[in-house]
Amino acid sequence: QVQLVESGGSSVQPGGSLRLSCAASGFTFSSYAMNWYRRAPGKERELVATIGSAGGSTIYAHSVKGRFTISRDNAKNTMYLQMNSLKPEDTAVYYCHAPVGGGFGSWGQGTQVTVSS
């Protein structure tokens, strides 16, 4: 059974930093690219970043490029999202996604990030 558990969300001031984690289980983590998505209040879900199975290739949404860094530790079955220079528009629920489990893949429960002064 695929399980994805996000953690690390919090409330921070603009300009602050957070590191999100996604602990994966129930599948061969090192064989799959992984994704971070987010959904802001009243907006569509947005793909934030993607990382290749070995971690060597990454893709970022234009809105976060240069501020966020996606990474993974295949020995720990864990993916990360380092978020720096946070802006109020980064406020959202952040979700970990794996392209496994059929259909549109598998999702974590989400972790809330709030950027506000």
Summarize the structure.
The protein is mainly β and 117 residues long. The chain has strands spanning 3-7, 11-12, 18-25, 34-39, 46-51, 58-60, 68-73, 78-83, 92-98, 106-107, 111-115.
Outline the structure in words.
The N and C termini lie far apart (40 Å). The protein is globular and about 40 Å long. The strands form two sheets. Strands 2, 4, 5, 6, 9, 10 and 11 form a seven-stranded mixed beta sheet that branches. It is built from no helices and eleven strands. The model has no long low-confidence stretch (mean pLDDT 97). The chain has strands spanning 3-7, 11-12, 18-25, 34-39, 46-51, 58-60, 68-73, 78-83, 92-98, 106-107, 111-115. The protein is an all-beta fold and 117 residues long.
Q: Any key phrases for this structure?
A:
4-stranded antiparallel sheet; mainly beta; 7-stranded mixed sheet; 117 residues; 48% strand
Topology (elements, then pairings):
Elements: E1 3-7, E2 11-12, E3 18-25, E4 34-39, E5 46-51, E6 58-60, E7 68-73, E8 78-83, E9 92-98, E10 106-107, E11 111-115
Parallel strand pairs: 2-11
Antiparallel strand pairs: 1-3, 3-8, 4-5, 4-9, 5-6, 7-8, 9-10, 9-11
